[in-house]
Prior knowledge:
By secondary structure, this protein is of the alpha+beta class. The protein has helices at 50-62, 94-98, 109-123, 149-152, 209-214, 313-318; strands at residues 2-3, 12-13, 22-25, 28-32, 36-41, 44-49, 69-71, 76-80, 84-89, 103-108, 226-228, 231-241, 245-247, 252-256, 260-267, 273-280, 284-287, 291-308. It has 6 helices and 18 strands. Strands 1, 7, 8, 9, 10, 11, 12, 13, 14, 15, 16, 17 and 18 form a 13-stranded mixed β-sheet that branches. A 5-stranded antiparallel β-sheet has the order 2-3-4-5-6. Helix 1 (50-62) crosses helix 3 (109-123). The structure holds P-hydroxybenzoic acid and fe (iii) ion.
Amino acid sequence: xxxxxxxxxxxxxxxxxxxxxxxxxxxxxxxxxxxxxxxxxxxxxxxxxxxxxxxxxxxxxxxxxxxxxxxxxxxxxxxxxxxxxxxxxxxxxxxxxxxxxxxxxxxxxxxxxxxxxxxxxxxxxxxxxxxxxxxxxxxxxxxxxxxxxxxxxxxxxxxxxxxxxxxxxxxxxxxxxxxxxxxxxxxxxxxxxxxxxxxxxxxxxxxxxxxxxxxxxxxxxxxxxxxxxxxxxxxxxxxxxxxxxxxxxxxxxxxxxxxxxxxxxxxxxxxxxxxxxxxxxxxxxxxxxxxxxxxxxxxxxxxxxxxxxxxxxxxxxxxxxxxxxxxxx
Length: 329
Ligand code: PHB
Ligand code: FE
């Protein structure tokens, strides 16, 4: 394993015949052509569809490497150590491990963050929005054609307390640029009435979460709508496939608010299949800390992801002081 300095320096070469730059992170190289992203490392090489690669890269960048592991697919991805990030190939894939073809590169977060942002900016063509559902975006493919910086620099929305309290009203969606999504046309837009005791007007709040989510323009991008110490409520709207396979470093809870998502659950380290979870509206699931999962949403659906953001949890789980599952039945 090599460790690079933390200076945010972007190494790009290029443009190739299709107009795309190539990038280097340690001994890992990234390049793309009209259809594919290519990832090469000293003991192997990998190819992914350019659209799937950009959708995964977009989440990794927007979430600043998220909790634990972000697998772009069964081979390449990142592990967040909150200050440094491992860029890996084959590390969480039994076959690559057994053949000793896997590779890990430990990088300072700024180095990998800036390089990933530069790849995303250069490889995203005009009209392609990696956050949008396939039905609501143009094509990722072809020779380099313009850019879409407005789409790729969106961040997930983060409330400080709860959406709708003073200070967090700007986070609420309205008709200005936030139309109700085509698949949520039947969602009531009524808002609850709040009658607070005098003096408590800024403390008591209520809002229609379904109406709020019905206006989300992005898919598979949880937004933090309430914060109570380490407890984060992160609802999101989902359509098509979660572009990453998430290997968590803590348990997380899912509450299916509408429609249906099918989850593929695998062993976090080997990728061995563990279960298939079909969640229908009203279902609640706890995803344990020793798995990885990828969701499939046949129709746009609403999902509440409930996270405990405590920085102590990964160590408590890896040292065995905390169980990896939050409940025993
Ligand atoms: C997850 O990995 O838990 C996850 C990520 C993004 C979503 C939903 C769930 O939109
Ligand atoms: Fe997850």
